[in-house]
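Section 4.2 – Deliverable D4.2 (structural model, holo form)

The reporting period included a commitment to supply a predicted holo structure for the target in complex with (2R)-2,3-dihydroxypropanoic acid. Inputs used:
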Amino acid sequence: MGKLREHAEIAVWPVDELPPPSEVLVREAAASDGLISLLTDRIDAALLDAAPRLRVVSNYAVGFDNIDVGAATERGVIVTNTPGALTETVADFTMALLFAVARRVVEADRYTRAGRWQSWGPMLLLGQDVCGATLGLIGLGRIGTAVARRARGFAMRVIYHDVARREGPEQELGLEFASMEEVLRLSDFVSIHVPLGPRTRHLIGAPQLALMKPTAFLINTARGPIVDSGALYDALAGRRIAGAGLDVFEEEPLPADHPLLTLENVVVAPHIASASVKTRTGMALMAVENLLDALAGRRPPNLVNTEVWERRRKSKQEGSR
Ligand code: DGY
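Output (structure tokens):
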């Protein structure tokens, strides 16, 4: 905030409140040259039309599915995000969810607190081993690769599917490329690391869940709508898969009466995979730098719609000829 104030007049919606109602967001955007948005702020064509002054939308997140990037590009509005800043922190949390479901950590906590612990028992709260298990990654970008690195440290076999082979990390970490179907069939843990877009919405539905082993777990720290939550509920409730660790949901916040919350074999978190002090500070600084660069006419380091920048550059060049 201090850095922003040095360069601009700012209007702030308090972070400890619910997101601004859309009419407030539109009103404030209309009076602004730049906007730092959260993933809970919908930046669509209607907002952009109401805000002709707006030159940049700097998203405080690596994902930008809350923004209609096409509409921003058409209107010459720069969109930026915060890649890299949160990679390691999200990978840590992915492993935390993986261990939590494999070793029933949350269930064990509930059991102990409820006073149900009578005696040590050979069959008490048996889980699944992580060491030696197969991890299947759907998506091997920055976060997927960071998860793979951790998993290799735990002596897991790591297979992955992505739109293209990633030979660098494959060789460096000893990963195996596989078809989507193979990843689903062979993995003891399937973890999702793709962005949300039209091609990945409900990428995991009933047919995909049916391919998974009954002893396998699904981990999602990417975006909720990548998984069909109705199909996931059915698979978990019917024990067609063993469990799930979920940080993201089709509907956020997850309603307290959501059917998923009735299941013992699910560990849930409120979209906090990147929530460490260091990472959230890093994301904030990155969002500020992106915004200030764009406003000052410099190319922001984390430009999403490079076309807007190229168009500006060309029209400047033509102007100076
Ligand atoms: C992101 O950055 O996209 C995460 O979901 C929140 O940090």
